[in-house]
Amino acid sequence: MTRRTAVKLALVGLTGAAVGVGSIPLIRSIPATAPRRFRHFSDDDAALLIEICEQIIPGDDLPGATETGAIHFIDRQLGGRHRKHQPTYHRGLESFRQTCTQVYGRAFHELAPVQKIELLQAVETGRVPKELWPDVSAPAFFNVVLAHTMQSFYGSPRHGGNRGYASYRMLGLDQPVIAGQNRYPKA
Amino acid sequence: MALKHVNAVVVGAGAGGGVVAKELAEAGLSVVLLERGDWVSFEEHGQDELISQRTTVLGNAYGPDDRFPRMSEGAPGQWNRILPHEGGYGNNAACVGSGTVSYGAMAWRFSEQDFRMRSTYGRPEGSTLDDWPISYADLEPFYEKAEWEIGVAGDMSANPFAPPRQKPYPMPAFGQNREGEMLYAAAKRLGWHPFPIPMLRNSVRYGGRNACAHNRACCGFACPINAKNGTQNTVIPRALATGHCELRVRCVASEIVVDDHSRARGVRYFDAEDRPQYQTADVVVVSCAAIETARLLLNSKSKLFPNGAGNRHDWVGRNLQDHAYSGAWGLFEQETFDDVGPGATIAINDFNHGNAGLRGGGALCNEFIRLPYLFTGVRPPGAPRWGKAHKDWQRNFYRRCVGIHGPVQEMPVAEMRVQIDPALKDHWGIPVARLSGQRHPDDLEVGAFLAARAEAWLKEAGAVQTWKAVAGRGSRPGQHQAGSCRMGNDPTTSVTDRHGRVHDIDNLYLADGSLHVTNGGYNPALTIMALGFWVGHHIAREWKGGRFA
After folding, report:
1. Among B202, B151, B519, which residue's Cα sits nearest to residue B342?
2. In principle, which of A182, B133, B539, B541 could form an S-S bond with A174, CB 3.0–4.6 Å?
3. Does residue B54 sit at the A interface (CB-CB below 8 Å)?
4. CB A185 to CB B385 under 8 A?
5. Is B131 within 8 Å of B122 (Cβ atoms)?
């Protein structure tokens, strides 16, 4: 943390925030050759959300949120079951962007890995400049993104996330279950 | 065009209604069985955890859909409109078979004391606790019918707290999975009495259907091989096979018509094309589960019952109960998970009654398999919610985590209730149910007690870390909903008589969990089925041919 950042975070009550969650994640960006068009996100918002989701479920030796399609899950559900959260995303992402700029003077994707986690912890706990979150509170935004990222990563691939049942493989769950092959019924 | 008059119309094809329809059809009555949902199958949603009956974040695989909103009270006086997949709705499945399609299928008989809770413990302040007007002995033959006609696998020989039975289970009990074996040994060391959970599930081929294949996605899902026994694959097909019963799906009842002579004439409903229909019948049976049964009665206003059918003394909708589920989780060094579904295999009844200083208690059982998304909510305090640490936690503990929980028998509370919302209407223009109230404080005490026993059990089994999960006061009754139209001998303090007949309306019956005076320290499905046989038997016995009573 630079001295300048420390001063700014101190101003919003974020002093001494320990970076306890996670190690350094791999930085994954959208491949430049495959620009995505999303139904509910501008390309800029999508890129930012992908970065946030990747902090929540980082890729390591096994795939994380980006690689398993979290953005596709969320984009699809914002037109379906999670329709009511459209404003949470659109306003929350804008507040998040402004918070990042004000505190770090840089865009989220330009932050060091520890800074990304530090900022997300501040958003999670509401230790952010309140005036930058007029429409949706920072913790409310974080909790929605967290829940949807988890749904994406652990739910069925038919909704756009959990590509290749990556999370099931991570947990050692055979999928698909094939009767007579990977099932061991006991009487 | 008027529909052909029938002897009986049964509203709701779930655990209670499916049984009643079969009993009446076999007795020779012409029956129309109305169900607001449809036939459902495993194939439609498969093993999709996010659209199941246990995790409904993307919808309710087995219904109801968004056409059935409700209101629920948050802070006092603050009402929230809630959809079926959202928390606080109090969801019960809406399909042929209802919750018996997707349940975990525990097949409990209530304890003898569960039928006389007030005599056993006295009524605590703030509760409407009472005895049932029937005893365990009255219901015993009907439990037996439910076990044999629908199909239960069990063995109570190791359970000294089991109520007496005349006949053994029709199928042998299931064996233990890995965590069940571990917990069995630990319970024995503690001097407790572990035994296999009785299940409405085939341990061997039964009823023309196959034995269970121990599917991971069982509780919350239909069975892909039809080895789980509900009303949809047992009594309802048998009712239809008599030729006397017609099942009409996607039919939403709006009103029981009660005439000026205090007799039910029939049921108004909207059919699958949303057209209003009126089915007249000699006898009407309502089996919509505690919330919707109360709603239908309250929406059935007539000259003699201006506040709703059977609601002369303002008891319809009150005493809504559920189970204040409480227990504990434990983490282990060794792998405890063997992917043998449905997961719940072992129980004790040592703490259902006789707990010093407490009223009642509940069974303790190991938990059904936690599918991956649900498991993200299973966490000791302070465990990482996200990031690399979350991922590591999942990897470390998904296969090393055991849960033990119990359905705490709740103290009924008058203000825990179903009312009709004055403004909100559903898709068909029918006023919706609104839910309010809080649990009795006793429930939390019993919950804390059971959680401590669960934690001790896990520690004895070798858990390296444990934490308790005790129910709060505010949650809304869901799949175990009960009690809203209790039976009783005194018409001024109950809704029906001991046979489920609504006081003062001689040809209107209820047959579902709404009749429960108290909800037992057990999953209620088998008791609801037994009440279906009890009520159905009574109606058939009273049936004089061509005219009722």
Report:
1. B202
2. A182
3. no
4. no
5. no
Tell me: the pLDDT tens digits for B11-46? 999 999 999 999 999 999 999 999 999 999 998 888
Q: Could you give the CA distance from residue B377 to residue B451 in angstroms, rounded to a whole number?
A: 18
| B321 interfacial to chain A (CB closer than 8 Å) | no
User: What's the pTM value of the predicted model, to 2 decimals?
Assistant: 0.94
- Which one of A117, A158, A172 has the shortest CB-CB distance to B48? A158
Residue contact A171–B395, C-beta within 8 A: yes
**Model confidence pLDDT, tens digit, residues B36-89:** 999 999 988 889 999 999 999 999 999 999 999 999 999 888 999 999 999 889
Residue A108 in 3-state DSSP? helix
Residue B77 to residues B68, B69, B71, B434, Cα–Cα distance (Å): 22, 18, 11, 12
Q: Which string of DSSP letters, residue by residue, matches B404-446?
A: EEE-PBPPP-TTSEEEEEEEEE-TTSPEEEEEE----HHHHHH
CB B362 within 8 A of CB B290: no
Q: What is the CATH number of domain B6-548?
A: 3.50.50.60
Place of tokens 């401590």: B452
Write the ipTM: 0.95
Sort out which chain A residues have CB atoms less than 8 A from B338's CB and list them.
Answer: 184
Angstrom distance (rounded) from CA B49 to CA B66? 19
Interface test with B, best of A55, A120, A150, A152 (most B CBs within 10 A): A150
Question: How many other C-beta atoms are found inside a 10 Å radius of the C-beta of residue A172?
Answer: 12
